[in-house]
Design brief:
The chain contains 18 helices and 20 strands. It is α+β, with helices and mostly antiparallel strands. Among the domains are: about 120 residues, Succinate dehydrogenase/fumarate reductase flavoprotein, catalytic domain (Flavocytochrome C3, Chain A, domain 1), CATH 3.90.700; about 150 residues, Fumarate reductase/succinate dehydrogenase flavoprotein-like, C-terminal domain (Methane Monooxygenase Hydroxylase, Chain G, domain 1), CATH 1.20.58.100. The radius of gyration is 24 Å and the shape is globular. The protein starts with 15 loop residues before the first helix and ends in a 15-residue tail after the last strand. The protein binds flavin-adenine dinucleotide. The site of flavin-adenine dinucleotide has 44 residues, from helix 3, helix 6, strand 6, helix 7 and strand 16.
Length: about 650
C-alpha cells in the first residue's frame, strides 16, 4: 500500500525551491565521476537532462529509438515556449504564469511544482539564447513574443513555426559536447523494453537493438525516463508515429504509480482527418489563433451548402458568420484554452454547422482580416511554414481561403507519478517531461510543454537527483549478470517469443486502429458513464483477440518494425483500459476530461472540488487484476479555487 508523499518543501511558495536547493544533499565532483545515470529519451527533457548531468560530472548513458537523438518527437513542436520575462511590459510575472497554469489546468496540479516551473521559465530563455537558439526578434533586436491560449499577456517565445526544432538543436549541441568529452554514451535505435530493480531500487534497463533484435542489459545508479506521452493510444494523433508508452508502462508494472491517465489534451486546430487510410494527423499551431479568427456559418442551410459545394466560405457574409469563440468568450476570444476551444468547435459541428464536405467535422480558421490589417508579407513572415504545410497537405491556399480545422488528440497530461524531486514511487527512478503526470493538471496551456521539459531537464532534475545520489556514492558499479537482470532478460525474451508465435491473421495496425476508434468514441472529447463502462469490455475483448490472432511477419533477429509496433500496441491496449477506468471513476468534468453528465447550463466543464481535488494514482496489481487507486490530495493555499471563466 503506497502512502504518496510529494516531499514538497516547507515554507512560503516563493521560497520553497530556493530553500530546497540551499538545503539539499549534493554530490562532490570526485564522487560524481563514480556514478552512472541512464537517461531514456533524447527529446527536450531527456537531451537537456543528459547534457546537464554530464556537464556536472556524472556518467550518462542516453537512449533513443530513432536513428539520431535529434529526431525525437520534440522536434515537431511548432508554436513556442512560455516564460515570465514580461518583455512586453504587459503585466506578466512569475505569479501570473503560475496562476494561469494552475487555472488553465482546472486546479488539478500541484501548486509548488507549478510555481517552480514559472520561476525557472526565465532561466530557460537565457540558457537557450546562450546556446544560439534563433528566437524571433523585434525590429529593435529584442526577443519577440506572441500570445497563446489562456493568458491575457504575450509571453510566448518562438522561432517561427519550428520552435521545438530550434530548441532541440540547442539541447543536442550541449549533448554532443558531452558525447565528445566521453561523459555521455549516446545509443540510438535501441529501445528500453523493461526496467530492472535490485532491492527495490531502479538499477538498470533491458533494451532491444532495433536493427539486430539483440536484447541487451545496462546497469546504473539511477534511471531517468524522458520517454514522452501516450497520445498514440488513440492511433490517430498529432504525435510522432513512434511515440509510445512502453518504457513508462513497463516501469509502471514494476511499481511506478501512473497518475491521471484520463487527462489527455485535445488540441483545437488540426487538419481534419481525411479518409480511413490516414495514420497521422497534422497540427496547425495554436500561434495561428493570434491572428486567425475561428468561425462557422451561422445558418445551418449555409453550412449544408458549403458541404455540398454550392457555396464557398468567402460567399458567406459577415452577418451570416458565427465567430463562436469571440461570441461565447469575449475576454479571451479566439485565445481561450485548448479544452474550451475544442469543445466549442465540437458543439458547433454536432449542431450541424460544420464545414467538412464528407464528415461535417471542421470549422474555419480565417486570416482574411489579419491579411487586410497587417499585409500578406507580415502573415507570411509569422506563419509562412505552417501555411505552406497546410497547402501541401490540403491543396488549398490559406492566404486565399480559410483553413479547415478540427480537434485531435495532441498531448497527455497524465503520466508516471513523481514527487517534487521528480522521483517516482520506485526509488532511483525519475520521470521528466511529458512522460510524468506533470504540472499541467487536467489541461495544458499552449507553449507550456517545452517549458516543462526544459525546466525539468536543465534546471530541476540535475539538482534533485543529487539528493538521491548523495546516498549512493558508496554503491559500486553493478554487474548485469545478477539474478535480477537474468530474470528480466528472460521475461522479455519470452514476451517477444510470445508475440512472434501467435501467428494469427490480423495486422498490428488493424488492432491499433480499432483500439483508436473505441478510445476516440468513448474516451475522447466527451465521455459518459455508459460509454466508459462499455469501453472497458470492448478493450478487454480486443486485447484477448490481439493475443490470439496477431500476425507479425519476418523474424525477431532483424529489423522488424511490425514486431516493434506490436510490442507497443500491447501496452496501448492496457493503458487504454486504465484511461477508461480513470475517466469512469472521476465523476466530474475538468480540463480535457469532459463527462457529459457534469456540465453547467452553458455546456462548460463542471468540477466537483469537494470529492475530486486529488491526483488519482494507479497501482498495478498483477496481470488481469484490477488496478488500485491511491490519492494525493491537492491543497491550494496561494490561489483561489473557482469555476474557470474566460468570458470576462
Ligand atoms: C505537432 C506538435 C506541436 C507541438 N508544439 C508545441 C509547442 O509549440 N509548444 C509546446 O510547449 N509544446 C508543443 N508540443 C508538445 C511538446 O512538443 C511535447 O510535449 C514535448 O516535446 C515532449 O518532450 P519530451 O522530451 O518529454 O518527449 P519526446 O520529445 O516525445 O521524446 C521522447 C524520447 O524518448 C525516446 N523513447 C521513448 N520510448 C523509448 C524507449 N522505450 N526506449 C528508448 N527511447 C525511448 C524517444 O526516442 C525520444 O527520444 C507539440 C506537440 C506536437 C505533437
Amino acid at each position: 500500500m503506497y502512502k504518496l508523499n510529494s516531499r514538497t518543501p516547507e515554507g512560503p511558495l516563493e521560497q520553497k525551491w530556493s530553500n530546497f536547493k540551499s538545503n539539499q544533499n549534493l554530490v562532490n565532483p570526485a564522487n560524481k565521476r563514480k556514478l552512472d545515470i541512464i537517461v531514456v529519451g533524447t527529446g527536450l527533457a531527456g537531451a537537456s537532462a543528459a547534457a546537464t548531468m554530464a556537464e556536472l560530472g556524472f556518467n550518462v548513458i542516453n537512449f533513443c529509438y530513432q536513428d539520431s537523438p535529434r529526431r525525437a518527437h520534440s522536434i515537431s513542436a511548432q508554436g513556442g515556449i512560455n516564460a515570465a520575462k514580461n518583455y512586453q511590459g504587459d503585466g506578466d510575472s512569475v505569479y501570473r504564469l503560475f496562476y494561469d497554469t494552475v487555472k488553465g489546468g482546472d486546479y488539478r496540479s500541484r501548486e509548488a511544482n507549478v510555481y517552480r516551473l514559472a520561476e525557472v521559465s526565465n532561466n530557460i530563455i537565457d540558457q537557450c539564447v546562450g546556446q544560439g537558439v534563433p528566437f524571433a526578434r523585434e525590429y529593435g533586436g529584442m526577443l519577440d513574443n506572441r500570445s497563446f491560449g489562456g493568458a491575457l499577456v504575450s509571453r510566448t517565445f518562438y522561432a517561427r513555426g519550428q520552435t521545438g526544432q530550434q530548441l532541440l538543436l540547442g539541447a543536442y549541441s550541449a549533448l554532443s559536447r558531452q558525447v565528445k568529452k566521453g561523459k555521455v554514451t549516446s545509443i540510438s535505435r535501441e529501445e528500453m523494453v523493461d526496467l530492472v530493480l535490485v532491492d527495490g531500487r531502479a538499477r538498470g534497463i533491458i533494451s532491444r537493438d532495433l536493427i539486430t533484435g539483440e536484447i541487451r542489459r545496462y546497469a546504473a545508479h539511477a534511471v531517468v525516463l524522458a520517454t514522452g506521452g501516450y497520445g498514440n493510444t488513440f492511433f490517430l494523433s498529432t504525435m510522432a508515429m513512434g511515440a509510445n508508452v512502453n518504457a513508462a508502462w513497463q516501469s509502471h508494472k514494476k511499481g511506478a504509480l501512473f497518475s491521471n491517465p484520463c487527462f489527455v489534451q485535445i488540441h483545437p486546430t488540426c487538419i481534419p482527418q481525411h479518409g480511413d487510410f490516414q495514420s497521422k494527423l497534422t497540427l496547425m499551431s495554436e500561434s495561428l489563433r493570434n491572428d486567425g479568427r475561428i468561425w462557422v456559418p451561422a445558418k445551418k442551410e449555409d453550412a449544408e451548402k458549403i458541404r455540398s459545394g454550392e457555396l464557398k466560405p468567402k460567399e458567406i457574409t459577415e452577418e451570416d458568420r458565427d465567430y463562436f469563440l469571440e461570441r461565447r468568450y469575449p475576454a479571451f476570444g479566439n485565445l481561450v484554452p485548448r479544452d474550451v476551444a475544442s469543445r466549442a468547435a465540437k458543439e458547433r459541428c454536432d449542431a450541424g454547422h460544420g464545414v467538412e464536405k464528407e464528415t461535417g467535422l471542421a470549422v474555419y480558421l480565417d486570416f482574411s482580416d489579419a491579411i487586410e490589417r497587417l499585409g500578406k508579407d507580415t502573415i507570411e513572415e509569422k506563419y509562412g511554414n505552417l501555411f505552406q504545410m497546410y497547402e501541401k497537405i490540403t491543396d488549398h491556399n490559406p492566404y486565399e481561403t480559410p483553413m479547415m480545422i478540427y480537434p485531435p488528440i495532441h498531448y497527455t497530461m497524465g503520466g508516471i507519478w513523481d514527487d517534487y524531486e521528480l522521483m517516482t514511487t520506485i526509488p532511483g527512478l525519475f520521470a521528466i517531461g511529458e512522460c510524468n503526470f506533470s504540472d499541467h493538471g487536467a489541461n495544458r496551456l499552449g507553449a507550456s510543454a517545452l517549458m516543462q521539459g526544459l525546466a525539468d531537464g536543465y534546471f530541476v532534475l540535475p539538482y534533485t537527483i543529487q539528493n538521491y545520489l548523495a546516498d549512493q556514492i558508496n554503491v559500486p558499479r553493478f554487474k548485469t549478470d545478477s539474478p535480477e537482470f537474468e530474470e528480466a532478460d528472460k521475461k522479455i525474451k519470452e514476451r517477444f517469443d510470445k508475440l512472434m508465435n501467435i501467428k494469427g491473421k490480423r495486422t498490428t495496425d488493424s488492432f491499433h486502429k480499432e483500439l483508436g476508434r473505441i478510445m476516440w468514441e468513448n474516451v475522447g472529447m466527451a465521455r459518459t458513464e455508459k460509454g466508459l463502462q462499455k469501453t472497458i469490455g470492448l478493450i478487454q475483448d480486443l486485447r484477448a483477440e490481439f493475443w490470439k490472432d496477431l500476425k507479425i511477419p519476418g523474424e525477431q533477429t532483424e529489423l522488424n518494425q511490425e514486431l516493434e509496433k506490436a510490442n507497443r500496441v500491447a501496452d496501448f491496449m492496457e493503458i487504454g483500459e486504465l484511461m477508461a477506468r480513470d475517466a469512469l471513476h472521476r465523476e466530474e468534468s475538468c480540463g480535457g476530461h469532459f463527462r457529459e453528465e457534469y456540465q453547467t447550463g452553458e455546456g462548460e466543464a463542471l468540477r466537483n472540488d469537494k470529492d475530486f481535488t486529488y491526483v488519482a494514482s494507479w497501482e498495478f496489481k498483477g496481470e488481469d487484476k484490477e488496478h488500485e487507486m491511491h490519492k494525493e490530495a491537492l491543497v491550494f493555499e496561494n490561489i483561489e479555487v473557482k469555476q474557470r471563466d474566460y468570458k470576462k
